């Protein structure tokens, strides 16, 4: 198991912002950002039907359709089916993530983790992405942040539906890997405890960052390492607050988080380190991490991410973070 050998590098491109997350992004700006990622050597792209009700997939597909399919790795997600029926994007019930894609397409989204819905979702994604195959498929957002107390019931539907379909498609060679794409550690911990089916990797968003990583370090990442299951870290900038933005957990950052970020920034300045470099290199330092997939909507952000990976982060900086209890004592940093 694992996907490290499949991925072309440790830096991918997360396309959630291309679904008009937080703002209405012009088509040409979105296209230019994908072009910048390609031109600067990024060859792993992650998307989902949820991102703008298919908008992210459409925009990504328009650019990648002109590229040789064998030269890049593509992942998308299942768990939501996009319909032709229209609705108000701002009025959708998204649990803790209300209003996240209010500028996306108005197509109605239906949550479903059944076998039939999984196959339909894949078929629809292939059309929007203008490709004949997917490399990795994640089961999306099957957790309490979107589904509240119903999440365990939906997880059971996914276990007997989506999980089995994706394992069969992997075993048949239709896809190369599958797992969960979630913002919480509990669904991944449950899945690691299963005898069957067995995933190859997980995409964990927001739970292994400079600002939030203690829970993942306790059980999840040691178990993943032991079972040779790789982790892709999504949201390494914690929804943007670590990259100069104002959002944490996809909402306006609270005062305590802003204060913590300000202290990290101050220590980074003292040691001549950019916060982006600290964020990306922290996420990649754990042996379970196969890649990070920060998002972007402006071409300039791509070069910043690439530079952040190459930047030297002195050991003294990590020591300072530990001394002020800004990162866990047992968090790997090199």
SSE inventory with pairings:
Blueprint: E1 13-14, H1 27-39, E2 44-46, H2 55-64, E3 73-78, E4 80-86, E5 107-111, H3 115-129, E6 136-140, H4 144-147, H5 151-160, H6 162-171, E7 177-182, H7 186-192, E8 201-205, H8 214-226, E9 230-234, E10 247-248, E11 251-252, H9 255-270, H10 275-285, E12 289-293, H11 299-310, H12 315-323
Parallel strand pairs: 1-2, 2-3, 3-6, 6-7, 7-8, 8-9, 9-12
Antiparallel strand pairs: 4-5, 10-11
Helix pairs in contact: 1-2, 1-11, 3-6, 7-8, 10-11
What's the total count of β strands? 12
Low-confidence stretches: none
The largest β sheet comes out as:
8 strands, parallel
Q: For the largest beta sheet, what order do the strands appear in spatially?
A: 1-2-3-6-7-8-9-12
Strand content: 15-25%
Number of helices: 12
Average of the residue pLDDT scores? 95
Helical content (DSSP H or I, runs of 4+): 25-40%
Quaternary state of this entry equals single chain
Q: What is the structural class? A: alpha/beta
Q: Determine Rg (CA atoms, Å).
A: 19 Å
Question: Between the first and last Cα atoms, what is the distance in angstroms?
Answer: 24 Å
Overall form: globular
One letter per element, helices H and strands E, the order comes to EHEHEEEHEHHHEHEHEEEHHEHH
């Amino acid at each position: 198991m694992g996907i490290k050998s499949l991925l072309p590098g440790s830096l991918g491109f997360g396309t959630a912002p291309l679904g008009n997350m937080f703002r209405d992004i012009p088509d040409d700006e979105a296209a230019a950002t994908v072009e910048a990622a390609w031109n600067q050597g990024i060859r792993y792209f992650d998307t989902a039907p949820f991102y703008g009700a298919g908008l992210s997939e459409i925009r990504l597909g328009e650019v990648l359709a002109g590229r040789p399919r064998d030269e890049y790795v593509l992942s998308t997600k299942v768990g939501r089916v996009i319909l032709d029926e229209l609705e108000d994007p701002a009025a959708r019930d998204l649990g803790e993530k209300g209003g996240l894609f209010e500028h996306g397409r108005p197509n109605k989204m239906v949550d479903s983790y059944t076998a039939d819905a999984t196959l339909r979702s894949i078929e629809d994604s292939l059309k929007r992405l203008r490709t004949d195959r997917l490399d990795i498929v994640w089961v999306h957002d099957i957790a309490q942040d979107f589904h509240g107390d119903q999440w365990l019931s939906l997880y059971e539907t996914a276990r007997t539906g989506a999980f089995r379909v994706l394992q069969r498609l992997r075993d048949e060679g239709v896809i190369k890997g599958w797992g969960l794409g979630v913002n919480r550690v509990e669904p991944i911990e449950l899945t690691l405890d299963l005898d069957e089916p067995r995933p190859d990797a997980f995409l964990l968003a927001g739970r292994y960052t400079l600002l939030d990583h203690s829970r993942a370090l306790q059980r999840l990442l040691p178990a993943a390492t032991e079972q040779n299951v790789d982790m892709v870290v999504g949201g390494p900038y914690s929804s943007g607050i670590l990259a100069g933005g104002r959002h944490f957990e996809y909402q306006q950052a609270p005062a305590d988080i802003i204060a913590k970020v300000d202290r990290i920034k101050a220590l980074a300045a003292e040691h001549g380190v950019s916060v982006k470099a600290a964020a990306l290199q922290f996420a990649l330092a754990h042996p379970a991490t196969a890649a990070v997939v920060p998002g972007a909507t402006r071409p300039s952000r791509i070069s910043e991410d690439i530079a952040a990976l190459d930047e030297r982060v002195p050991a003294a900086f990590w020591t300072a973070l530990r001394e002020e209890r800004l990162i866990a004592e047992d968090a790997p940093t090199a």
